[in-house]
Amino acid sequence: MNKIETEKKYIIRKPSYKTVSEQKAFTESEILQIYLESEFVTHRVRRRKFSYGKTEYTENKKVRITPMSSEEYEREISEEEFYSLAKNIEKGASELHKIRLTFEWRGKTFEIDLYEPWKKTCIMEIELKSEEEEIVMPQFIEVLSDVTGKREYSNHSMAHKFPEEIIG
């Protein structure tokens, strides 16, 4: 399915797990992303294991349009196809592991990604309808930095070189 994805990305202070888990539509999942050799697009496969037992495998191709928006093609794939495609890992890239906490707040879906190297901070993304849409942050979220469009904080870049933790 092709779609335009518009999102904001922030480094936030790691919130209380208990507070996040009490939010509407909360889910927790363990994600493994592998970036594949590709000349013109960002190409990855993902395994996502949900805490309630379901596992999803997807292939994603993305072309950046603006710092906030990209055209994205995503499809569900089989476990076998995931492991077959994963053999084509991009030169110099590592597997990217993260825990994703997802919840809804005032009609928006918030995704918090926890990365093992970072102990006090994490990355939060919010999908928007347009680049002009205003965001209301939950009171339990402390934004340290807006990193929307900063290449070093893209998952693709972090699979090559993980940035130092910024503690504000």
CATH class: Mainly Beta
Unreliable stretches (pLDDT < 50, length at least 5) are none
Helix and strand content put the structural class at: mainly beta
Shape: globular
**Rg computed from alpha carbons, rounded to a whole number of angstroms:** 16 Å
Percent range of helical residues: 10-25%
Number of domains: 1
Features:
168 residues, mainly beta, Hypothetical Protein Pfu-838710-001, eight-stranded antiparallel barrel, 3 helices, 9 strands, globular
Concise structural overview:
The chain is mainly beta.
Please give a structural write-up.
The chain is mostly beta strands and 168 residues long. It has helices spanning 17-21, 79-86, 155-158; strands spanning 2-13, 24-35, 42-50, 55-64, 69-76, 96-105, 108-114, 121-128, 143-146. It has one domain (2-158): Hypothetical Protein Pfu-838710-001. It contains 3 helices and 9 strands. An 8-stranded antiparallel β-barrel has the order 1-5-4-3-2-6-7-8. It is globular. The N and C termini lie far apart (39 Å). The model has no long low-confidence stretch (mean pLDDT 95).
